[in-house]
User: What shape does this take?
Amino acid sequence: MARSRYLPDRGLTARMVFTMFLLGLLFVVLGAVLIRYLGGLGLILIVGFLVAQWFFSDRVALFSMGGKEVSPQEAPELHAMIDRLCALADMPKPKVAIADSDVPNAFATGRSPKRAVVCATTGIMARLEPAELEGVLSHELSHVAHRDVTVMTIASFVGVLAGFLTRIALYSGMGSRRGNDNGAPVVLIITLVSVVVYALSFLLTRALSRYRELAADRAGAVLTGQPSALASALVKISGEMARIPSRDLRQAEPFNAFFFTPAVAPGFSLSTLFSTHPTIERRLEQLSKISTELGRPA
Amino acid sequence: MSWLDRALGRSKPAAPDLDQLFAVPDAALTLEAAVGVHPIGLGSVSFRAAEGGAFASLTKDVQELLDADDGPKVERSVDQFGYTWLLVRHQPDDMPGLVTDLHAINSTLQDNGFGPSLLCSLIGFRTPSDAKLGLVYLYKRGTFYPFAPTTDQQRDNALELQIRGQLANDLQVEPDLARWFPVWGAPGL
Assistant: This one.
């Protein structure tokens, strides 16, 4: 095969691996504490949570946004765009859905490429030029190719479990009287470990989510060969996102992690550390780097 | 793509498979003998032009290279989805020459690192009742599928499936019907 024009981003891969490693470490710590102090019950808790989250992860975003699957006859242009992108990327075509919402956004969901759904809102289709929409769709298809729903579901598992344990402990465990003498320390230890694990895993999953976004931007821009169209879509949408009525925003915010650009309420500033998406500057910088790589003479 | 590449979010652009194109002349003979479908001497290559000067000058070079002979000029057009089509004309009976030209476009793009931009190739045919039929080659899969547009965004699926049966011995036909995407109004149909 001829050499590729695109340079891999080793730094991004290294940061991603390190974050995943730390999350795995947290999981081992929490699991060890649970099994050490709760035995079989701890094991059941872990497995039960894993299974439940696995099945819930699939279509949550689609249902909550009111996305409806559309046939090629209903949305020929959108289908044609995705057909071509899938042929370029050599990946099976996901289902295509449209959500009737003025929030200009797009998301991919479904834990395997076979079950994947790519959804665009009517707002994004009205606002973007075809080339920009294509850039957004290739970003979402890259999420599907990278299996980001699966990766983020597994990655967030530690945090969800730790958060659940913390809550249980706060509401029931600590207040109730205990029959045996070591009851209180066990609950205390599990609570403390859960709180610490929860805080750390929160930061780590957010970091991982940002890295996955950058990876999807990169893969999407490389797929179409049009990083500037994607950059232009980003600029357009991030400007529009700040001007959206807040009723829609409250509905959309819990699902930010699945979105193309997050819906953040106006005047509400998140520090970069807590954000699911990289800053727009960071994303634009990467895209302009890819654009330069493309322009080099052969 | 390996599971590790997926897990690390570093998918690589899919490389094209060009060799299968040379099986087309034989398949065309089979089609003509079996169902009377004949080539019209038109073929086209579709790719997604990358931004930047490198790609623009490259496609210009390819066009000039193919225009250097005495034959008809290569026609270039951009469809509504932003894909560039280069249309090549030959005599209807010169299928090998047509395929060689198509291959020249592909290999030039690939040699310059733009292989991942190749979308598909199309070779035009007519049925005995003068209906349009395109043979579409998917570079990333190395497979073919028939595309038979009738009027107004409708496809003649029965004809397409009939042609699939005829092609099975000569060409690798795309087994996944979901990948037989329509190319309405493509040059060369």
About this structure: Residues 72 and 179 of chain B are 32 Å apart (CA to CA). DSSP finds five helices and six strands in chain B.
